[in-house]
Amino acid sequence: MNIPVVVIIATSKRRTRLLLERALPSVFRQQAVNPECIYIVDDNNCEREYEAIVRGAEKVREVCFAEMFPQGIPDDWFRVRVIRNHRTQGHSGSGAWNTGAEAAFRAHNGSSAKYLAILDDDDEWYPSYLSACYRLSQQGKKPAAAVVTSFHRKTVDKAELARVSADDLTIDSFLIGNPGWQGSNTFIDITVFWQAGGFDESMRSTLDRDLAVRVLECCELRDLAVVVNQQPLWCHHTDGRDRVTLCSASKRQGLDQFYRKYSARMSSQVFEQSLERASRLFGYLYEPVSREPCMDIQWRSFRNEAPVRLLIGVTSSCARNVREQMLSLTAQINAEPQFSGYCHYVVLTNGVNEDEIQQAVSELTCDLFCTRVITLQEQGHSRFRFPYRDIYASEELHKKSIAHSRTLLQFFCWEMTQREDGPEYVLILDDDLLFETLALQDGQLITQKLDFLGKIAKLGRESTADMLVSAYSDAPALPFYSSIRTQLLDTYYSLHEFLGCNAAVSTGNSHCYQLSVLSTRDDYYYDLSSSRSDHLESPVLWQNANTPGHAVSLGDLLADIAHLNNEANITRPLLATHQQWAELNGQPSFRRGGIALYRNLGLLVEVPNLAPLMSITGSGGHSRRSDFISAIYMTEIAGKSVELVSLPLRHHRRQQNKPCDLSAMKLANDIIGLCFYRVFREFCRNPDIAEDGLRASFSGLVEQYLVSMRVNNLRAEQLVMLIEDLLVCAHLSHEGSDPVVAGQIRRARLDMAQFRSEHLTEKFSSQVGEIRKFIESFDVFEQVVRIYGVFNHQSPQMWRLCNQAGALSQLCVNDDLMRLQDKSFTGTGT
Fold it and tell me: What is the pTM of this model?
């Protein structure tokens, strides 16, 4: 009987012999069933071991079914696929199991329930295990989230029965210990698995208990059942090394993480029982997180740097952003007064709010720096001078793409640098950045003022790079949907921290611990990261980034939840460090974002910002990541140097963000941008790459992003339900005793209901098909060749044009619109 079950075996520590002699044959001996697929996930990180697994698995399959199929085994009979673990490696199989579950989900069309059956490489199933699990999953009155089966525990010298009881499968039971849910008896609905978040890849042990708690949360909210099979139908082999007097490093790390996640929701009795068991079995001693010692952090001063003539250019359609940025720049120059009169602030308008932007600039113009607004009219008059006008001919000036806006801004900035006593350096910024930074000190978030202009001057003089780029602080520069899952995860666990019944261990100390540890890791805020996945179920407890330096409170957290509806990140900020700030030497990078300092001014006009068109006619507009694409061209083809340094201006989305479009077209546009720059870089490094190979690479990336987005959406929906349920309970408990807090909770409930209806309904799932259609209509190879051709054929022409600076300067003089009110740019401020 064919059954909708996928088997996942994770193998590691070069235990290939056990896999081939014990675990895999036990799968092939399953009676009366034929699973959809058997994924063997190699977690060894060794090519020789991988090849041995591939050869060995096929040989075992041939031997096991030779008698049944003397003429040859059908391809779909106990089909085996050996895949590599592309997620977290070496964490007790968590990344490997999730890799297999992800592969199964990719193949799942959602038309019927599909189950995952997990097996350790050193355990074995008895012949009726799969058939019994599947039969039980179909028989209950409630849909079965999982089936948990009793087992024999076998050591070197004895075997004992470990019977699982349905009465013991409660959240409190798993908070105390493990009543029998192991890796090898995890038979679970694939949708529930991902609604629960999968295995937490940050944990080196205690994975089964952690997953069980989250699955049981799903069952409580969705009226699902965990079915128990009392009959022992598998064997867990152990040599006793998992129970030692002294706690191993892996066991300690797993238990530490487990208590950080769940101690706040444990009653005092449950907490004591849990610690007693951990001490008795593993020699574990609980140590509460201690506050980091106060340190007198010294941020390197650049206050005495001589000033340079600096042009700051932004594109904007938002007067509020421009106003906040100009106020921030004013404060910065007041703090570094030697730069008074040396800076020029230029805004190129885009959109329909030009009058408001002009008014804001006019109101805030002062003697500290010069200002200029490049209006739509002026942009139109410049078209005959703009060397890339043909590329963007299909776009209306008031609806320019990011690529078009930045390229046009760079052109105007370049023209200004060609004047006598023009700017020495050009800083291109996003309009929602502030001249301050967010940092962590003494366990609290703080707003730190730094000598940004002084460091820019020093970098300008001493760096040898053509362009310097920097990451932000505070909110990452990502579409909000790419961090929804982790934002909701942090919100849920943070609410438990404030509302938990075990106040003795749910203090703010763990807040600073998680943030200080995790914030140093790349992509810890990014749900769609291709470089890490150990952060997705590891909560980072909320801190008050809205008013840094203030003590955290439940009311502040509840108020911050409202910002999620404006698609502003409220947890996992990017943090500046004094060590990074002090460093002047940059690292090679192509990841240009919203902070780019041009030392080589010719690059402003030599290298446009190019992005793929959603259709060749231009009707679909340009995609994202034109900044990365231009930097890739600079570094891979033009031989220019782009370096990453620390100029961590603050990206404060709470103040400045507003909801954005989440249509299928917008999501398809973003996905194309995310995938395109990767294949474009591959093409730049190897222009002779086969067309089919490049298309396959792009399709693989697209599919990976779509699967990740679907999985994250399932988890996000579950987290919203959990948050809403937690807020309902909290409201009931505070309604009579604390009406102020009860009102704040009521408001947060409304905020979450709005968030669910606007972001996490069935909308995304229904959009996947439409997103695919948009992407399928996109010709990646044609766009790669188009952009590569523009760079290689037009850019040399631009270089020749740069050598005729005198001629271009004459054009500028003849254009009355280019005459600035400040007749000279000498840095005197007059």
Answer: 0.91
User: Which residues, 6+ apart, have CB-to-CB distance to 633 below 8 Å?
Assistant: 607, 684, 791, 795
For residue 549, what pLDDT is reported? 61
Q: Distance between CA atoms of 360 and 352, rounded to whole angstroms?
A: 15
Q: How many residues comprise the chain?
A: 830
Task: Give the strand pairing for 642-645 and 467-470.
Answer: parallel
The residue written with tokens 């030497």 in the block is 585
Q: Which helix or strand (DSSP H or E) is residue 250 part of?
A: helix 249-262
What span, in angstroms and rounded, lies between the C-alpha atoms of 324 and 327?
Answer: 5
Strands (E), 44-125: 80-84, 115-120, 124-125
SS3 state at 5: strand
Closest CA to 589 of 546, 645, 544, 643: 643
Quote the mean pLDDT of the chain: 87
- H helices of 661-738, in order, are 664-685, 691-734
For the chain, helix (H) and strand (E) counts, in that order, are 28, 24
Beta bridge partners of 425: 310
The pLDDT tens digits of the residues spanning 781-790 come to 999 999 999 9
Closest CA to 575 of 645, 651, 503, 630: 651
Q: Do the beta carbons of residue 451 and residue 298 sit within 8 Å? A: no
Per-residue model confidence as pLDDT tens digits over 180-221: 999 999 999 999 999 999 999 999 999 999 999 999 999 999
Query: At what angle are helices 691-734 and 664-685 packed, to 10 degrees?
Result: 140
| Residue 765 host element (H or E) | helix 763-776
Q: At what angle do helices 554-561 and 739-759 cross, to 10 degrees?
A: 30
Phi/psi at 463 (nearest 5 deg)? -70, 155
For residue range 451-505, list pLDDT tens digits in order.
999 999 999 999 999 999 999 999 888 888 899 999 999 999 999 988 876 544 5
**Any idea which residue has 């995890």 for tokens?**
186
Q: Going by DSSP bridges, is the β-strand pair 595-598/425-429 parallel, antiparallel, or unpaired?
A: antiparallel
492 — phi, psi (to 5°)?
A: -65, -50
pLDDT per residue as tens digits for the range 100-116? 999 999 987 666 679 99
Cα–Cα distance between 225 and 578 in angstroms, integer?
Answer: 51
End-to-end CA distance of the chain: 87
